[in-house]
Specification:
Bound molecules: flavin-adenine dinucleotide
Strand content: 25-35%
Structural class: alpha+beta
Radius of gyration: 22 Å
Shape: globular
Helix content: 25-40%
Largest sheet: 8 strands, mixed
Number of helices: 11
Distance between the termini: 39 Å
């Protein structure tokens, strides 16, 4: 058994954990990120890096380096209803340095943060380390117990942060109460190859009873096929051939390619969840990102919110860390700061789920173009509103933490 002490222990190396670890280490706090997987190269979990996250990278002086990695840019968003293609979002007017959504595999984004985290002496990342329990001392969370390939690891820390996603063990072990908001749909994710003659535009295709979101990843389309909640088993029972037919009816040029979906193993189910914790903290412990609030896939904002939570948490916690264990009032402040954007975003997502998604999935006759979309075609400036909501969200965060060390051997107090 190994036993160590760090100032801050982050459980989970997703966007929230990696970004918070990076920012705290950058401001001189010793952090340890524990990640149960051996690498970041896992199933598809969203590839979107939104303008507000790109702005955070700009503020950190990392944007140029980041955009040197392979990615695709989406400056405008569109939907196709029946045969009509409609522009619905225009990111090119946002008050940010990068006015587009960058599509980059999540593992490239996480590796990028990990690489830059290693520039700071206080940053430690341990892979293949799964947290299984919390430690308590005098009624306060004082660390975690984890398993590793070499045996048990005990970590003592001033603060444990649950950044372990929507199935968070931290929030379960801490007994934090969850408010389940619910979702009427699930999504099936898959890849279909892309040909040069295909349209460039990433878009949502909508027809009565069917919705597919297609993201242009250059060599392939990353597709999400939306189904009514809990109906995946029925769909599977009808066979893969019937599913391929449904896909071709929405996207006719997939006809010669749907055989790439050999079996259901090529398709992963995302059981959509929308929930949030009533209280995000207790003495010695804080939850952020999906661990505090699982988001609906509408708008593809989960990664962005996780990063924004991390920036806010670092801004609030860096100074208290300098004086000792962050007091409960600082943890409370993090929730106060981030609960508002979470609630607003979830409210909009639920509205879209109930007013649009549920109706489309239940529709049997031809769909009509909603008035709001007609107005957007007539007055293009209206497309800036959804672009702002999706690209920046409510209350975008800015990096306020100082950079204490630049390189391991090159302290630069600033
Ligand atoms: C199929 C799919 C598609 C998605 N598409 C998009 C999209 O297009 N855009 C978007 O913005 N969002 C998307 N999301 C949501 C997005 O992935 C999440 O909102 C975002 O990753 C949340 O970040 P996080 O850091 O809070 O949690 P996560 O990214 O879930 O990270 C949690 C990390 O904790 C680790 N972990 C879990 N338990 C333990 C433990 N006990 N010990 C140690 N480590 C642990 C996990 O391995 C994981 O690496 C998608 C999700 C899925 C599943």
């Amino acid at each position: 058994m190994e036993e160590i002490k760090v100032r801050c222990c982050l459980v989970g190396g997703g966007p929230a954990g990696m970004m918070l670890g990076f920012l705290l280490a950058r401001s001189g706090v010793d952090v340890l990120v524990l990640e149960k997987h051996g690498d970041f190269l896992r199933d598809f979990r969203g590839d979107t890096v939104h303008p507000s996250t790109l702005e955070v990278l700009y503020e950190l002086g990392l944007l140029e380096d980041f955009l040197r990695r392979p990615h695709q840019k989406m400056e405008r968003g569109a939907v196709q209803i029946g045969q009509q293609t409609l522009s619905v979002a225009d990111f090119t007017h946002l008050p940010t340095h990068a006015r587009f959504i960058a599509f980059m595999p999540q593992w490239d984004f996480l590796n990028f943060i990990a690489e830059h985290g290693r520039d700071y002496p206080g940053f430690q990342l341990r892979m293949r380390t799964e947290v299984i329990d919390l430690l308590y001392e005098d009624g306060r969370v004082s660390g975690v117990r984890a398993t590793t390939p070499d045996g048990e690891l005990i970590v003592h820390s001033d603060l444990v942060v649950g950044t372990d996603g929507r199935h968070s063990i931290v929030r379960a072990k801490a007994g934090l109460k969850t408010l389940d908001i619910g979702a009427p749909m699930d999504a099936l994710w898959m890849r279909i190859s892309r040909q040069k003659s295909d349209p460039e535009q990433s878009l949502g295709r909508i027809d009565s009873g069917r919705i597919v979101v297609m993201i242009n990843r250059d060599e392939y389309w990353q597709c999400a096929f939306v189904i009514p909640k809990g109906t995946a088993a029925q769909l599977k029972a009808r066979g893969i051939e019937s599913f391929r037919d449904q896909l071709v009816r929405l996207v006719p040029y997939f006809r010669g390619r749907v055989h790439e979906l050999n079996s259901w193993d090529d398709i992963s189910l995302l059981a959509v969840k929308v929930d949030r914790l009533e209280t995000w903290y207790k003495p010695g412990l804080l939850c952020i990102g999906d661990a505090a609030h699982a988001m609906s896939p509408i708008g593809g904002v989960g990664i962005n919110l996780a990063v924004q939570d991390a920036v806010a948490a670092a801004n609030i916690l860096a100074a208290p860390f300098a004086a000792g264990p962050p007091p409960i009032s600082a943890l409370q402040q993090v929730q106060r700061r981030r609960e508002y954007p979470t609630r607003i975003t979830q409210r909009i997502q639920v509205l879209v789920q109930n007013r649009v998604i549920s109706r489309v999935l239940a529709a049997e006759s031809e769909l009509r173009v909603p008035t709001v979309l007609k107005l957007m075609q007539r007055w293009p400036w209206l497309r800036r509103i959804p672009a702002r909501a999706i690209g920046m969200g409510a209350r975008p965060e800015h990096v306020r933490t100082p950079q204490i060390f630049l390189r391991q051997k090159d302290p630069v107090a600033s």
